[in-house]
Amino acid sequence: MNTSTLVEKQLLATKFFVPVAPRSLISRPRLAALLQESLTYPLTLVSAPAGFGKTTLLSTWGQSLPASYPLVAWVSLDEEDNEPRMFWTSVLAALNQHQPEPFTPLLKYLQSSQAPPFNYVLMVLINLLIEKTQRFLLILDDYHLITEQQVHTTFSYLVEHLPPQLRVILATRTDPPLPLSQLRASRRMLELRTNQLRCTTEETRAFFHQLIDIQLPDEAVQEVTARTEGWLVGLQLLGLSLPDGADPRTLLEQVSGDQRYILDYLTQEVLRQQPPEVQTFLLSTSILEQLSASLCDAIMQQGNSQQMLQRLEQANLFVASLDSKRQWYRYHALFAEALRYRLEHTQADMVSTLYHRASCWYAQHDRTTQAILYAFRAHQWQWAADLIERHPLLSLTWGASKHELVTFREWLKQLPEEVVNSRPRLCLACTQILWAVTPYPRLQAWLDAAEATLTASHAKHSSAHTSHPILTPQELQNQEDLLGEVIASRAFLQSFQGDGQTALALCQQALSLLSADNFMIRALVGTAQLIAFYSSSTNDAVAAIESGLQAVSLAQTVGLNALAMGIIGVTALRMIGAGQFHKIQQLSKQAKQLGTQPTGVVLPEVGWSAVFEAEILREHNELDAGLPLAREAISLCAQTQSGVSLTYLLCGYGVLLRIFLSRGELDAARTALQQFEAIGTSLNQHVYIHMCSFLTTVDQVRLWLACGEMERAIRWIEQLDIRGRHSNPFVHEREEVARMRILLANDQPDLVLKRLECVLQRATTGQRWSHVIEIRLLQALAHQMCQQERQALDVLAEAVRLAEPEGYIRSFVDEGALMAALLNRLQEEQCKDGPTPYLDKVLAAFPQQSEEHQHQLKRETQHSTAQLLLDPLSERELEVLQLVARGASNQEIAQELVIAVDTVKRHISHIFSKLDARNRVQAVRQARALDLLSEEH
After folding, report:
1. Domain membership flag for residue 214
2. Of residues 250 and 801, which shows the higher confidence score?
3. Is 80 exceeded by the pLDDT of residue 912?
4. Looking at per-residue confidence, does 724 or 487 come out higher?
5. CB within 10 Å: which end of the chain, N or C, has fewer?
6. Could you tell me the residue range of the domain that residue 93 belongs to?
7. Which CATH number characterizes residue 148's domain?
């Protein structure tokens, strides 16, 4: 094993060492008693600002526990633990220190390239602990450094299901976003806070008497305690600052202000008493978060750092050993902060050099993240860029975890733009990692810079008269591959904007440059072709889906199962529009096989294809099965370790919106839409609008109309008119369909019929049969509202013909009562030619009510349908119409209604006119089509 690997393991191991207690400690039995009580609580929170002795208290108490007590598993958290996988790796590794046998397999599992969902890992961990007789105490120090919500969420899950075999203590400077109020209410949490950690007057007296050998009168003890507010680090600094035999009150009289000012003043006093070589060492190494002899030698450019570290520890100069061998140390955080402040104000010209030396040491020992951070502090931009290009994060293509995205963006913010633009590989990584969450102009600028640099370099080395060194064939191919990757990335981004011809041309250009065995980027090209063929001017669903399936195969060829499952999801979304439900089910089965590990664990990437399974269940009217599957799929998608998970979640909430609409649960549907929109705020607008066109552009309108929010729907149309036609033709098409629904609800069927022809033609040309069926159904409703029953039944018959092979049901049922009436009429016609099992099944899916409720609903439907006529029938005309349908003569109608025969004739004349009928038979037929007659007629 090489030295760098050993050092990396050693650095990691320091996270799990219980810090060695300082030699100079005062006894604090009251706090030890409180901690003893913590063993009866699932969670103990030790929350106080820096300098109140949290770490010292916990480490001292933990090391004093007898063997019969729980085994102490200690984790010193740092910022890298914001990555959820790293956090749980640290927790498992801490437990693993004591009993490797049960935890090692789970630890390896979590560190694998395709780790299972965290909830699964925690469930297995909980079951392992339940099976053990041994008890564990997990102490997480510096929990305030954790800011990633997914870590808090998964940790809350563990706390909620904590078995008796595990107790947890959190040490933090601020209260974490955990369900603390619930834990308090259920008496499942013990709290130690600032007031309890403050030194009492007795502890202050003991501190000066036992550690500094100063006997203070009671009045002085009380004054010192009050001035320092029981702040332990303040007392320690005060003790170190005192000349022999001096009264601490004298020194305190010279300083006033808050703790920050006291800290700086007392640190300066401590430094003044140290020999020059100690002062230099303290100031120079204060930039380090952890100290070892090797690292300090590199910083100081000398060879006696181990002796100096031991000397500092013996002098109690705020240096704590992190391991029993005393190889790793750290300064107290506040002391280090004060030292750095002093360094920056006395030796500002040395600061950058010290940071650069630290960065070089970390880079030499394969600690790339730390090396990058120190390079930034040194303002060594080119060196930082070199390190970023080496980082494992850049090996990821088309997605990173949320924490990795945040980390990478923070790095880019610090790098000067000219540094980034001069590096094609870095520009490409910026695009590939941040494509979903960065505005398009910025993405395009990165690709422009990368392509310009690579093109110029390629031309320079390809020239016959070049004075530059000739590249080998492999080097030239590598350069072409990189250029091909840049162009493939450009094609992928272009495909979202609707210019299919440009995107497809870029795909061909990329393929001409890529080597035959560059399967991963060729899969990316296939994905770009999939999007471009389907939702752009090219408009070819068959070619799109074929490209997607080829891309899936390419990803599988090189074992990139997560990428393959992602492309399956992209393809399945297009298959929904193309009406290929059976093929989606086959693809979903393939995704499950790819995502199911030998132990039966399902990887979270399976969630995306499961979303579309839920959509098919919804369309087949299996709502009770579709809802839990959609929720499970969303839960899986949320756990994927990729920035692409945002698009997965969008699909999940889009399908959830549809399911709730079909169930008539409008409040739940509104919540799903709000969750969809909240996720959309993190995405760039091109990607978000593209996803909306598939998932919510139409369904948000359906929700508004179902909730009676016509004014909101009208305002949306007005905004469309102001903006004008969208440049992406697919986006424009879906907006038109949504607009038509509003126009129908606003009683404008003639305009609907006129405008639907164009979108119908485009959807038909593209062979997007789900959209064709939807448009046909809207046409049928519009024809019926125009009293054109024959045309309505003809287009409805075409929709039924297209829908039957894939078993569409909800597309019909969700259109409501008027669609049910039309289907009944169509069934009456088609029954003459034989059985109609599909129509029977669709009609059976419409809501069934009690007889009394059906009559009431019928009357309401008659009323509402009558309002759709240009000149609605009056109440009296409806009564006359009922008697006409019964076959009553004019005289019989007059007698029944107690009106004159001439009045009956006048009513019948108005009915014929309003229903566009020439005689009683036509009038009754039209009335039935419009559902104006009660069932007995």
Report:
1. yes
2. 801
3. yes
4. 487
5. N
6. 10-197
7. 3.40.50.300
